[in-house]
Amino acid sequence: MDTLEEKIADALTLGRAPTAADLGQLIEEATAAAAAADEAAEKERRRAVDPAALVDVSAASAAILAANLTRDHLNAALPRLQDRLTKVEAQERYDRWLVDFEAVKAKRDAAAAELKVLYAPFVVKITDLLLTIEQIDAEVRRLASAKPYDADAANGDGRNLRPVEAEARGVEGFRQEQASIMRDLKLPHWAVDAGFAWPPHRPLALAQLSQREYDQFQQQQECVRQQARATAVEAGHRQALTAAAGAS
Questions:
Q1: How many domains does the chain contain in total?
Q2: For residue 36, is it within any domain?
Q3: pLDDT value, residue 221
Q4: What is the reported pLDDT for 205?
Q5: What is the pLDDT of residue 88?
Q6: Tell me, what's the pLDDT at 164?
Q7: 3-class secondary-structure state, position 188
Q8: Is position 247 within any domain?
Q9: pLDDT tens across 78-105, in order?
Q10: What is the pLDDT of residue 101?
Q11: How many angstroms from the chain centroid is the CA of residue 204?
């Protein structure tokens, strides 16, 4: 069985990997042994100077010196053992954190992959639909304003069209405090520098643009939409590959 000094030397060797629990126990043992050596040296000194006792001075001196050296050796080792314990505890905390990190990273990576696969195609599809709805709602408004109410048949005929969203959600319209998809929805493009897919970018002075400037603006918007569609196609392919891999 290793002596206390051998266990201390082992624990302080950087190539070794003692646990924090082992180091804590070793520090307790070394502290107790240092106190015992100090007590032994003091006891031997008192005995050596007792005039009523027959003392072998050489042996007593050697015993006192040995006890003092043992105490000093152990006391010198304690700060290094404590430093080693601090580092080992930190490493053990890091090792436990690393397990947690890898678990959370796996969840994060899975959610990020799912978001990319689902969102990129979704934002293209929903934006195309919302643009179509805008056009249809404009036609609905045109019909409402053009209805010839001076014709008797036009009054009470029930031919009044609600906007697409109101029809879909079964309401007549949306109050300000109610959430409307067409009015309140915001969806960024997948590409972080491309701005919002919905509502699409529309300069405040759009009506004041020249035909050339308007055409350039439309081309830019279409370029952004094409990039979004390409990303959606890529995400769809990745989803198909993932599904095929899961089935095999």
A1: 2
A2: yes
A3: 63
A4: 54
A5: 86
A6: 96
A7: strand
A8: yes
A9: 988 898 888 889 989 999 999 999 999 9
A10: 97
A11: 39
Distances (CA, A) of 175 to 135, 141, 160, 187, 212: 22, 18, 19, 22, 38
What are the CA-CA distances from residue 22 to residues 3, 26, 28, 86 (Å)?
15, 6, 10, 13
* 50 lies in some domain: yes
| Rg, Å, the chain Cα set | 41
Torsion of CA 225, 141, 163, 223, to 10 degrees: 0
How far is the C-alpha of 142 from the C-alpha of 14, rounded, in Å?
Answer: 83
Half-sphere exposure of 205 (CA within 13 A, CB side): 5
Q: Is the peptide bond before 148 cis (omega within 30 degrees of 0)?
A: no
Q: What angle do CA 94, 100, 106 make, to 5 degrees?
A: 130
SS3 212: helix
Q: What residues of the chain score a pLDDT lower than 70?
A: 1, 14-16, 50, 52-55, 201-218, 220-221, 224-225, 227-228, 232-233, 235-248
Nearest to 184 by CA among 195, 170, 172, 174: 174
Residue 236 is predicted with a pLDDT of 62
Q: Give the residue from 89, 106, 123 where a domain finishes.
A: 106
What pLDDT score was predicted for residue 217? 52
Domain that includes residue 66, residue range: 4-106
Show which of 106, 128, 161 is a domain's final residue: 106
Residue 69 lies in a domain: yes
Same-domain check for residues 190 and 97: no
Task: Read off the DSSP letter of residue 219.
Answer: H
Give CA–CA dist 41/35, Å, rounded. 10
Would you state the structure tokens that stand for residue 105, as one six-digit string?
A: 């990273």
